[in-house]
# Entry
Amino acid sequence: MSWVGRRLPRYEDPVLLRGDGRYTADIAHGARIIRFVRSPLACGRILAIKVPPGTQMVLATDLAGVKPICPRLLRPEYVPIAQPILAAERVTHVGEPIAAVIAQTAAEAEDIAELVEVEIAAETPVVDFDQALAPGAPLVHDNAANNTVIDARLETGEVDAAFASAREIVEFTFESHRQSAMPLEARGAVAAFDPATGRVTLTCSTQSPHVMRTGIADLLGMPEAELRVIAPDVGGGFGQKTALIPEYVLAVWAARQFRCTTAWIEDRLENLTASAHARDQRLRLRGAFDPDGKLLALEADALCNIGAYSIYPITCGVEPLMAMTELPGPPIVHGRGR
# Structure
């Protein structure tokens, strides 16, 4: 039986077309609302945080025992960078969460968040390739020398011979600019604590529910059996919703800490400033061609600006590796990249 050319029934469409889909925000009714206070600066030291009296606020100091998000790549050249759930001493990108407000309604949480005063001593940000790799450039993270998280090389055989025998060698440089996935539904989480069992059910707009459960349980030091993650209808993801993010970790932590249901529903401004972006690559390409115009070998040097942190669990390595595997298009005989 061949599936090619056959009409396949789509069972999920009728519910969505009628507007009867069930998204994360649809189950947030009655939850205590989380709103994040975010950094307006790309780089700086946090000097003071002034919290309005009588409000329920979560700061980095409240998260003792909660581990940072730190994805790993099993390569010796890789430098793991730890991402805090809430910034404690420094901010490293615009939109980084510094504090979390918990209130009864979204409007109340928004109003309180606007009253929080954060004093930040601005430092020189490093935002592009040339700045990051310039001699003496400020380090985004102290443990990443030269602002480099990984410098690796992949190579197949006979590349040098192919270039030596080539009739023509074509070389050029181009940039693939930064882009945001812009899903129609922004990110969101509802974490419900069950006082009878001590378990938490996290409903979130994610492409990777199993990754969320494993990652969050590990960071909070809780058994995986005490956390259930549900991905309801998801209004677009495009890779942005594969990552474990600080907001989901804090939602689960707060649900357990305060024995209640908490909800964070992202707005569009947050999605544009605080969510994971992609691309921003500079590629130098060299192609070796025979007299008939056949591509004999391809060499690429890829610089990838990953921003302040790697995303969990696939790390920054996904960007250059995807570039290297997709550049040749259909299979070729030879290829080399760095």
Notes: The chain has a mean pLDDT of 93. The chain has eight helices and 15 strands.
